[in-house]
Amino acid sequence: MDSSELYHVKQQFILGAYKTLVDLSLPDPNSPDHTPTLLYQARAHIALNNPKAAIALLPDGSSNVAVKAAASLARYVAATDAASKDSQLEDLRDLAVEIEGEDADGSEKDRALVRVLAGTAFARAGEVEEALETLGGATEDLEAVSVIVQIYLSINRPDLARKEFDRAKKWAEDDLLLQLIESTIGLVSGKDGYSNCNSFYTEQIGNPSLSSPHLLTARGVTRILRNEFPEAKSDLEESMEQQKGDAETLAAYVVASGLAAPKKPEVDELWNRLVSEHPEHPLVVDVASKAQLFDECAAKFEVPPTAAARA
Question: Which InterPro entries does its entry note (predicted)?
Answer without folding.
Answer: Coatomer_esu, TPR-like_helical_dom_sf
